[in-house]
Amino acid sequence: MMRLVTVVLGALVVGMTAATAFADSSADLFEGKCAMCHGANGAGKGKVPPLTTAEVQQKSDAEWKTAIEKGVKNDKGMMPPYGGKLTPEQIDGLVAYMRTLKK
C-alpha cells in the first residue's frame, strides 16, 4: 500500500512539474516573441491592440492560432507570421497563456 501511495504521489509531482514547465515556457515564449509589441501584460503598445480586452478575448482559439501562424495585417500595422518559426505545441501554449491575460 505504501508503495502505491509513493508511486501515485510521484506521478502527481511529475505531472504538476510538467504543467508548470509548460506554463513557464509559454510565458517565456510570450515574453520573447510577443511582449515587445503587445507589452509584458498584454495591454498593447502604441498601434498594437491589447490582448486583454473582452473583444479580443472573445476570439476563438482557432482565430488566435491563425493570427499567430499567418500573421496579421491591418490598418494599424502588421504582425509577422510565426507558423514556420513555432511548433503547433508552442502556438497552443501561447494561446493558453494569452487567455490568462484577460482583464
N to C succession of SSEs: HHHHEEH
What distance lies between the first and last C-alpha atoms, to the nearest angstrom?
46 Å
Largest β-sheet summary: 2 strands, antiparallel
Helix residue percentage: 55-70%
Assembly form of the protein: single chain
What is the CATH class designation?
Mainly Alpha
Looking at the overall shape, the CATH architecture is: Orthogonal Bundle
List unreliable stretches of 5+ residues.
4-9, 11-23
> In terms of structural class, how would the helical and strand content be classed?
mainly alpha
Structure notes:
With 103 residues, the protein is mainly alpha-helical. The protein has one domain (2-99): Cytochrome c-like domain (Cytochrome Bc1 Complex, Chain D, domain 2), CATH 1.10.760.10. The protein is built from five helices and two strands. The chain has helices at 2-33, 35-38, 54-57, 61-70, 88-99; strands at 72-74, 77-79. A hairpin with a 2-residue loop joins β1 and β2 (77-79). Residues 4-9 and 11-23 have low confidence and may be disordered.
